[in-house]
C-alpha cells in the first residue's frame, strides 16, 4: 500500500502539474512527456482508482523525481525514509501550525513577494487536513541522510529530473513544491543550486514557517567539500542600498519595498508629493550612477542606439504630463474579504498623481529609426529595468506599439517627477511613464527599450497582471487566455471618512472626499455619492487642481491622464445611526464601476474597482 | 383668490420654466428677463406664500402670456373662461384617463417620437392629482371663442409673447405646455402657425390623448378667411416614401421608423443581414437620387468641396470594416422596469453587426485640405443628414476630430453594407460609420461634413444622447453638464433563451447564446455566464465568425469594432426549478458591466448595460 501510494502519488502529482503547466504554458511537455502520454500511465479504472487512492493517501508523500529505477538505490531509500520520518513529525508540525495560526495569517498578509504568491502554506495545510481518515504511519527511521556532491545536485534542474536545491548544507528535493511556490516559476532559478541568495533577495522567505516547509523536503546532505565552498560565498542584503522612506507610509512589504500613503493624504493634494506617492518595487532599488547611465534602444533597423542621461535631456524636447499611476492591485484588500487572493494586501491608496517630465518615447524611437517599415512587423515595445535578481534577470514589461508611437499616447521617458529628478524609489534616473496604463508597465530604472513583434516574455507580462473570471482558480487558470492588463478600468474611492469612523450628530454634516480616475485617457465625467448604501445618489463636484487653484484646462479627448478629486458636504440624515457611504465614477465612455466585489473577484486580486463603501457611525449627542 | 391664483400661477410657471431653461440652456432669459429678475416679482415671504398658494391652487390654470395688460381684453377674458370650462370638464377628463389608463400606458410605451419625449400626459395627470384639496370651481361659461386672424396668431412665437398654434381652425395657446412637450424645444418650430404638418411628420401625435390635451389649451378660432387658406394647404405624409420593411421586425415606432429584430436572429449570424439590422430613424427616410447626390465638405481652408457618389467611389480607396452599431437606448426597457424613462422602449436588439465599405473619412478630409494648420483650431467633425423635418432642419451629430482623422479611427463614408449598396433605411446612398461610437453619430443619408471648433449644435448632440446620475430628474437636469455620448461602454446580452422560457428537464441541458461588444475599439476578452443569478460563473467561449467558419484575425489594439458572439451549453442543475441566467462581459481595458439597473438608471434611459438576466423555468417530466 505504501509503495503504491507513493508511486501513484508521484504520478498524480505529475498529472496535476502537467495540467497546471499545460494550462499555463500551453505546452504539454513535462520532461518531454505529453499530457496524454502521462495519462496513459494510468488509464481507465486505474486512473479512477488512483484518484481514490490519492484522496485517501494520508500525507504529503513525495518521491524522488522520475522514478525509482532512474535513481541510485541509496537516495531513493533515503527519500522514502525521510518521507516517513517527516510524516511522523507531521502531527507535531500541524499542531504547531494550529497553535500559531494567527501569526501565520499575519505572516501571510505581509508575505507576498514582488512576484506572484501562492498560498503555499495554505495548500500544505489543506492537503494535511484532507487526509485524516487514515492513520498516519508511525514508522520511524534512523537512516542517515545520503551525501550528495554539488555536481549531483546540479543535475536536478527540471520537473523531469527533479528540482533540488541546497540550504545551509542540506539538500532538498522541492519538485512537488514548485507548483505551490508563491513566486511561481521563479523558484526554478534556484534549481540545482543554493537557495540562500534568493531568500536574501526575497526577504519574505525569512519566516519560520518557510523553513518548516523546506525541512519536509530534505533528501540529503551536501558533501563537506562543497559545503565549504558554498560557505565562502557570503550572501549580502541586496536591499542595503534601498533609500530611506517616509515613516507615514503604510508598508505592505519591506523587501522589495511596497507601501502606500494614508488615504486622506491623496485627497489633500491634487499632485501627490513624491515622498507620499505609493511605492511598488518588484526587486531591490538599483543604485545607478547618472554619469555612466546608459539607455539602450534595440530592435530597430539602424541597430542599437545608446543614450546617456545627458542625451535624453538635451537631444529631445522635454515634455511634461500630469498622470495618475495605479497599481493593478489597488484595493485588493477588498477582494480578500470575499475570498483570499494572492498578492500584496493593498488598501485604496496604491494610486497617486504626479507631474512627470522627460523625452517622448515616440521621439526617441523615431531617432532610433522607427518608421512605417517597422510598423509593418512591430507590435510591442518592451522595457527592461535595471533592477534585477541574483541571476541578473531584470524586471520587464511591454506596451502595445501604437500606444508607444502615437502622438497622442504621451508616453514619456521621464527623468523628473514633480519638478525634481526622479527619486530612487520611482526609477532614478529614468523611468517610463505610460499614461492611462497600469503601473506595472511604467518600468522604473529603465535600462533597455526593445521594439518587437512580441510582448515582453517577463513573468510580470505573461503570468501575472492579468484578470480572470471569479470562477477561475489556481487549478484551472490559463494565463495565456487573458490579455496582459494595459489600460485600467474606471475607478474611484472614498479617502475620507475612513471606514468605521464616527461622526458626532452635533456636526450636522459629513464631508466626503475621494479620487476618481479611468485608464486609457478616458476622462472622469461624474462621480455619484450615496449615503444610504446606493439607494439614492448625489453628484459630487469634481476638481482638477488644488482648492482655490485654477482648474487645469480640459484635456484633449482620449488624453485625460490625471485623476479628479471630489468632495461633497452632506447633512447627516435625521434618525440615521449609521451611514453607508458609497461612491461610483463614470468616465466619458460611460463605463461605470461594478456594484459589488464578488462578481469581479479574481485569484490574483487585481482590478478591484467595485463601488467603494465605507460605514460611518453617527454618535448622538449625550443627554445632560 | 382666483385671480391671485392665476396671477401667481403665471409667475410661478415662468419661474419654473425659467429654472428649467436656465438649467437646460444656461441662459436665464425668458422674454429677456433674468432668473433673478423673475424672482424679484415674488421675493421673501411673498415667494413662499406664492408657493403655498400654488400648491393649493386647484387646476391647470393658465393665463395669457406676459400679462393681462398687454392683451386685448376679449382674448384674456375668453382665456379665463376657457380655463374654467376646461376645469369643470377636468373631472370627466380625469375619470376618462383613469378608465383608460392601461391604453394610455400602452400608448406611452409606443409614444416616443424621434426626438426626446417628456411624459407630458403624466405631468398633466400629476398636476391634476396634486390639487384635490380644494373644490373645483363649477362656473360654466357660454362665451363664444374669440376670432383671431392668422396675422394675430403669428405674433405669438415665443415664451414671452406666448406660443400659439392652430389646429383644424382652432387657436391654441400652448405656452405652458412647451416645457412639457415630449419633443422638447422642437415644438417651437410650430409656434405661430399650423401644427398639422408637424403632426404628419411625427405621427406619434395621432393619438386620442394628444388631441385631448390640446383641447385644454384652446383660446380662440381662426378667422374664416384664414381657415380657408389653410385648408388649401394639404398635409401630405412625409413617410410615404419610406421603404418596405421585413415583417419580422418588432416595431417600436412606425413614423419615424424604429424597429429591432427578434434577439435570437442576432446570435444566428455573426454578420446581421441588412433586412434584420435594427432600424433607428429620427425623421422620414429621404429619397435620394444617386445620380445627383452631392456630399459637401466644409470648414477647411481650401473652401467647400463637393463630391458626387461617383467621386467617393472612384477618387478614394475603398475600405471595408466590420463594425457593430448600437443605439444608445438599447435595453432601455430594462430601465423602464425600475422607473419610467423617456425614449423608445428598446429590447436587447437595438444592436447589430455589419460589414461596411466606403471611403475613409480621413482620406476625404485630407483631400479637402485638412492638415496640421486645421488641427490647431478644429476639434470636431459635424455631420448633417439629408433627412429633415418640415422646416428643413436636418438630423445632425458630430464626433471628436481625433477620431475622424486618426489612421486608426477607421471612420468610413460608407456606400455599401454587407457587400451591397446601402439600403434606404441605412442611409442610401452614403452614411457615416464611426466604429466604436454610439449609433446616433453614424449619420445616415449624409449631406454635409463640417470641420469645426464646435460640436454639432443639433438637438441630438446637445440635449439628447447624454447620460446622467440616477438622482437627476427633469427638473434638475442640465444637459450641458454631461458629455455627448460617443464611445459606448461594455455591453452583453442573452439572445436565447428568452426571459420566461421553459426548458424540459428531459433536455438535460440548456444552451445559452448571446452577444458582447464594447465601444472605442476595446475588444471583448471574456464573457462570464451564471445560471444561478450571479453566484457562480463560467466562462463562455467567444467567436468572431459564424460557426464552422474561420475566426477573423485578431484586430489591432484599439480597433476591435465588431462584436463577439458566445454560447455555452450547461447541464440543468439537479433540483433547480428555475434558472436565473446572467451574463456579463469584460473588455480589454477590463471594464465590466455594472451588476444592476437602478444605480445606472437615467432619465433618458440610455447606456443600459447592467448584467443581462433572463429567468427560465425547468419543467419536470410528467409522471406516468
TrEMBL record, chains A, B:
Catalyses which reaction(s): sulfite + O2 + H2O = sulfate + H2O2
InterPro entries membership: Cyt_B5-like_heme/steroid-bd, Cyt_B5-like_heme/steroid_sf, Cyt_B5_heme-BS, Ig_E-set, MoCF_OxRdtse_dimer, Mopterin_OxRdtase_euk, OxRdtase_Mopterin-bd_dom, OxRdtase_Mopterin-bd_sf
Enzyme class: oxidoreductase
Localization: Mitochondrion intermembrane space
Keyword entries, A-Z: Heme, Iron, Metal-binding, Mitochondrion, Molybdenum, Oxidoreductase
Family matches, as SUPFAM superfamilies: Cytochrome b5-like heme/steroid binding domain, E set domains, Oxidoreductase molybdopterin-binding domain
EC numbers: 1.8.3.1
Record's function text: Catalyzes the oxidation of sulfite to sulfate, the terminal reaction in the oxidative degradation of sulfur-containing amino acids.
Protein name: Sulfite oxidase
Lineage per the UniProt record: Eukaryota, Metazoa, Chordata, Craniata, Vertebrata
Amino acid at each position: 500500500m505504501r509503495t503504491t501510494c507513493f508511486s501513484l502519488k508521484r504520478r498524480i502529482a505529475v498529472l496535476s502539474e502537467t495540467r497546471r503547466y499545460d494550462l499555463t504554458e500551453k505546452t504539454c511537455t513535462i520532461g518531454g512527456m505529453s499530457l496524454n502520454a502521462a495519462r496513459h500511465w494510468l488509464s481507465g479504472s486505474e486512473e479512477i482508482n488512483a484518484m481514490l487512492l490519492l484522496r485517501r493517501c494520508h500525507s504529503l508523500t513525495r518521491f524522488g523525481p522520475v522514478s525509482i529505477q532512474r535513481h541510485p538505490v541509496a537516495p531513493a531509500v533515503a527519500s522514502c525514509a525521510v518521507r516517513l520520518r517527516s510524516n511522523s513529525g507531521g502531527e507535531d508540525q500541524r499542531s504547531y501550525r494550529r497553535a500559531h495560526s494567527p501569526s501565520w495569517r499575519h505572516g501571510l498578509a505581509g508575505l507576498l513577494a514582488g512576484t506572484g504568491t501562492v498560498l503555499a502554506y495554505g495548500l500544505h495545510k489543506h492537503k494535511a487536513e484532507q487526509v485524516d481518515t487514515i492513520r498516519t504511519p508511525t514508522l520511524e527511521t534512523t537512516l542517515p541522510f545520503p551525501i550528495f556532491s554539488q555536481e549531483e545536485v546540479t543535475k536536478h534542474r527540471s520537473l523531469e529530473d527533479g528540482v533540488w536545491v541546497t540550504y545551509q548544507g542540506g539538500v532538498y528535493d522541492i519538485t512537488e513544491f514548485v507548483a505551490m511556490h508563491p513566486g511561481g516559476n521563479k523558484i526554478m532559478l534556484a534549481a540545482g543550486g543554493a537557495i540562500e541568495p534568493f531568500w536574501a533577495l526575497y526577504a519574505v522567505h525569512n519566516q519560520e514557517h518557510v523553513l518548516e516547509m523546506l525541512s519536509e523536503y530534505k533528501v540529503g546532505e551536501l558533501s563537506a567539500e562543497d559545503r565549504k565552498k558554498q560557505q565562502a560565498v557570503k550572501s549580502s542584503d541586496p536591499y542595503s542600498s534601498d533609500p530611506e522612506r517616509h515613516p507615514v507610509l503604510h508598508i505592505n512589504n519591506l523587501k522589495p519595498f511596497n507601501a502606500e500613503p494614508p488615504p486622506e493624504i491623496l485627497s489633500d493634494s491634487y499632485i501627490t508629493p513624491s515622498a507620499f506617492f505609493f511605492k511598488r518595487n518588484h526587486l531591490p532599488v538599483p543604485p545607478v550612477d547618472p554619469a555612466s547611465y546608459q539607455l539602450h534602444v534595440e530592435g530597430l533597423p539602424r541597430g542599437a542606439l545608446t543614450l546617456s542621461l545627458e542625451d535624453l535631456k538635451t537631444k529631445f524636447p522635454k515634455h511634461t504630463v500630469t498622470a495618475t499611476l495605479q497599481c493593478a492591485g489597488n484595493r485588493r484588500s477588498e477582494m480578500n474579504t470575499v475570498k483570499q487572493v494572492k498578492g500584496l494586501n493593498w488598501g485604496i491608496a496604491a494610486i497617486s498623481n504626479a507631474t512627470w517630465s522627460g523625452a517622448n518615447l515616440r521621439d526617441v524611437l523615431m531617432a532610433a529609426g522607427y518608421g512605417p517599415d517597422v510598423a509593418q512587423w512591430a507590435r510591442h515595445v518592451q522595457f527592461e529595468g535595471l533592477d534585477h535578481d541574483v541571476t541578473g534577470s531584470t524586471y520587464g514589461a511591454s506596451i502595445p506599439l501604437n500606444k508607444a508611437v502615437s502622438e497622442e499616447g504621451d508616453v514619456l521617458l521621464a527623468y523628473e517627477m514633480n519638478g525634481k529628478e526622479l527619486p530612487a524609489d520611482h526609477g532614478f534616473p529614468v523611468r517610463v511613464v505610460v499614461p492611462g496604463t497600469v503601473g506595472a508597465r511604467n518600468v522604473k530604472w529603465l535600462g533597455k527599450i526593445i521594439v518587437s513583434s512580441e510582448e515582453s516574455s517577463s513573468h510580470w507580462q505573461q503570468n501575472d497582471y492579468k484578470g480572470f473570471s471569479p470562477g477561475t482558480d489556481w487549478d484551472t487558470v490559463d494565463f495565456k487566455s487573458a490579455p496582459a492588463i494595459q489600460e485600467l478600468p474606471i475607478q474611484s474611492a472614498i479617502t475620507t471618512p475612513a471606514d468605521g469612523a464616527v461622526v458626532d450628530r452635533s456636526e450636522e454634516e459629513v464631508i466626503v472626499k475621494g479620487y476618481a480616475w479611468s485608464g486609457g485617457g478616458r476622462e472622469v465625467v461624474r462621480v455619484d455619492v450615496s449615503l444610504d448604501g446606493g439607494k439614492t445618489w448625489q453628484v459630487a463636484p469634481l476638481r482638477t487642481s488644488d482648492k482655490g487653484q485654477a482648474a487645469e484646462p480640459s484635456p484633449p479627448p482620449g488624453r485625460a491622464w490625471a485623476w479628479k478629486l471630489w468632495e461633497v458636504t452632506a447633512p447627516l440624515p435625521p434618525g440615521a445611526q449609521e451611514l453607508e457611504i458609497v461612491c461610483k465614477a463614470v468616465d466619458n465612455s460611460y463605463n461605470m464601476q461594478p456594484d459589488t466585489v464578488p462578481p469581479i473577484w479574481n485569484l490574483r486580486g487585481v482590478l478591484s474597482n467595485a463601488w467603494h463603501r465605507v460605514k460611518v457611525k453617527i454618535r448622538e449627542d449625550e443627554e445632560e
